[in-house]
Amino acid sequence: MMASTRSLLRTKSLISNLPRFSSNYKCLDVSVNNDNNITTVTLKRPPVNSLNLDLLSEISDVLTDLKKSKSPGMILTSSSDKVFTAGLDIMEMHKPDPERFKQFWYALQDVWMKLYGSPFPTAAAINGHAPAGGCLLAMCCEYRVMVQNFNIGLNETQLGIVAPIWFIKTMLNTISIRDTELALTTGRLFKTDEALAVGLIDEMATDKADALKKANAFFERFEMIPPIARAYTKDSLRGSDIEDLKKNREKDIQTTLSLITQPKVQQGLEFYLALLKNKKESAA
Ligand SMILES: CCCCC/C=C\C/C=C/C/C=C/C(=O)SCCNC(=O)CCNC(=O)[C@H](O)C(C)(C)COP(=O)(O)OP(=O)(O)OC[C@H]1O[C@@H](n2cnc3c(N)ncnc32)[C@H](O)[C@@H]1OP(=O)(O)O
To answer: Which PANTHER family match (predicted)?
Structure first.
């Protein structure tokens, strides 16, 4: 097939499948790049994009829209200039209302299953700190570009909590077993250059624009790859992790709720929240 015909066919199929996004998102900006039809989803929940039920529900909805519209790819980034996302909203875990906590955890599971298992390619332009749940979202993407001088990692043990098994499997899909064990048991946050050295990210960037440019370039690798072959291959690698959670979804919610409501765990969260607040007071 002539290159020009191929590009015309590609453009036609993209136009007919252009995603239609709800303009009602409160915590997200969603935009499609006219040059390559890649969608950029920008987390926008100040001050630190902490993942509460509302934000998770919106991310889940946008992922559904992207899948339905057969999007050629998605970049996840942040509107903040120093935080990608601060991870799960600690207020959803501190003295939780059980019914609300179940909805919250269900939404998190949904986002993980949809993002980790998306048929379309995904990249994270990590333009700020990405602790815990922030690191999880970044690791769910297939490619990570991170701006220098920020931190990323699963630091749950520092808060006296435990990263669920599906968080751990996501890290095991990204870095070695040895590095995962050391990182998780110590709750290590990696600086950007350390993350690159261990393979937790794929490229460093000087700033957000550079990160977006490099993330966009990632999708060029798939221009000549049939999407179905790509999607099946990804599913062969990640699908069994997702099936495991699907089978154990209710149990995972119940176990997490019973652990998170233990007095010792609640005390740990209170202590951590106080540290966050004190940090601000001692800086003032
Ligand atoms: C023993 C068995 C237990 C089993 C439990 C089982 C399962 C539970 C599993 C859960 C997995 C958990 C995953 C998570 O994601 S937990 C969240 C982890 N996140 C963090 O540790 C990050 C904390 N935040 C920071 O380090 C910093 O805020 C920052 C991201 C580096 C940004 O720093 P910056 O200086 O820019 O901002 P501030 O620190 O001043 O923060 C501004 C403001 O936001 C509040 N805040 C920060 N992070 C969170 C958060 N994650 N949730 C809610 N609120 C947050 C902070 O307190 C400030 O509030 P203020 O009112 O003072 O303005």
So the answer is: ENOYL-COA DELTA ISOMERASE 1, MITOCHONDRIAL, ENOYL-COA HYDRATASE-RELATED
Cα 227 versus chain centre, distance: 22
pLDDT digits (tens, 9 = 90+) for 105-120: 999 999 999 999 999 9
Report the chain's mean pLDDT, rounded to a whole number: 93
- Distance in angstroms (rounded) separating the CA atoms of residues 71 and 32: 10
Q: What is the CATH number of the domain that holds 211?
A: 3.90.226.10
Of 276, 279, 280, the residue with max ligand 1 atoms within 8 A of its CB, to mutate for a pocket test, comes to 276
Q: Is residue 205, in this structure, part of any structural domain at all?
A: yes
State the DSSP string of 29-64.
EEEE-TTT-PEEEEE--TTT--B-HHHHHHHHHHHH
Residue closest to 166 by CA, chosen among 111, 236, 126, 96: 111
Give the domain range for residue 138: 28-282
Interface confidence (ipTM) of the complex = 0.97
Q: How confident is the model at residue 18 (pLDDT cuts 50, 70, 90)?
A: low
> 9 in a domain, yes or no?
no
Ligand 1: which residue has its CA nearest to atom 48? 86
Q: Atom 25 (ligand 1): residue with closest C-alpha?
A: 86
